[in-house]
Write a structure and sequence with these properties.
Elements: H1 2-17, H2 23-72, H3 78-94, H4 100-147, H5 155-171, H6 177-205, H7 207-233, H8 237-265
Helix pairs in contact: 2-3, 2-4, 4-5, 4-6, 5-6, 7-8
Length: about 270
């Protein structure tokens, strides 16, 4: 646009430098030339007015984003503010571009606010991790104590011991995120072992389950005895073999039932 605009004055000078001609010839040509100049000038003014409006809109949008960023620069709500800054960056990229000097000036202010926040967040996280790293040693000592608990001998005593360790675990404070999951996983293993010991004892001491297991053993024993007696009396070898195979199958079930009953009687 600017290159075309600069050519218009040159064309006018060339027009003026042309040899004189009768008015009857030059007047219609001048009118056409003048109309073209006017049309171009109107288009040019409209173009630059539109461009100025776009730049003003871009300037307003970017100034608003800078104001939001600067308001957040001192926030200590680290996670929420970091997410907000990511949203602001997306809005910055989507906003229209303004004049280069304005863009550079506003971007410097926007990035300065963003950098100030993230630098403060990094410093806070580093300070927190340094403080929390001192808690790792305390929790490692508690884990050694928890893992030494004799779970199988008395699950109630084991649970009482673990409860005391858990209270001291909470009092020891937070640890860095990189260590947290690994430490807690070891403590959960002790908790699970105590829970299994509790469940096993409940299962062994449940009178209804014990009675059902005893009844099952008696039924299977009677079934094995009956099938073996029928096999011994059978005159048909094929029938005798079938009865003995059935007895052998019931004997396997009997062995499993007797093992289950032994758990209840332990």
């Amino acid at each position: 646009m600017e290159g075309d605009w600069r050519s218009v004055p040159r064309l006018l000078e060339e027009w003026k430098g042309l040899p004189a001609a009768p008015r009857s010839v030059t007047q219609p040509l001048w009118e056409r030339f003048s109309a073209a100049r006017s049309a171009f000038d109107k288009t040019r003014r409209h173009h630059f007015a539109s461009l100025d409006a776009q730049r003003a809109e871009a300037l307003g949008a970017k100034e608003a984003l800078v104001a939001e960023a600067e308001a957040l620069a001192t926030s200590t709500d680290w996670n929420a503010t970091a997410a907000t800054f990511r949203t602001l960056m997306e809005r910055w990229k989507a906003a229209p571009r303004g004049a280069r000097p304005d863009e550079q000036r506003l971007w410097g202010k926007f990035k300065g606010a963003q950098d100030a926040f993230f630098a403060a967040r990094s410093a806070a996280f580093n300070e927190r991790d340094a403080a929390q790293s001192q808690n790792v040693a305390a929790k490692l000592a508690l884990l050694e104590e928890a893992e030494a608990i004799n779970v199988d001998s008395d699950w109630k005593a084991a649970r009482k011991q673990l409860r005391g360790i858990q209270e001291r675990w909470e009092a020891a404070g937070q640890v860095p995120r990189a260590d947290r999951d690994k430490l807690e996983a070891r403590l959960h293993k002790v908790e699970d072992a105590i829970r299994r010991a509790q469940d096993n004892e409940h299962r062994r001491t449940d009178p209804e389950k014990s009675a059902r297991a005893s009844a099952t053993v008696e039924l299977l024993r009677a079934s094995v005895t009956d099938l073996e007696a029928q096999a011994a009396k059978a005159s048909d070898p094929k029938k005798a073999a079938e009865l003995q195979a059935a007895a052998d199958g019931r004997r396997e079930l009997l062995a499993a039932a007797e093992a289950a009953l032994a758990d209840f009687q332990a």
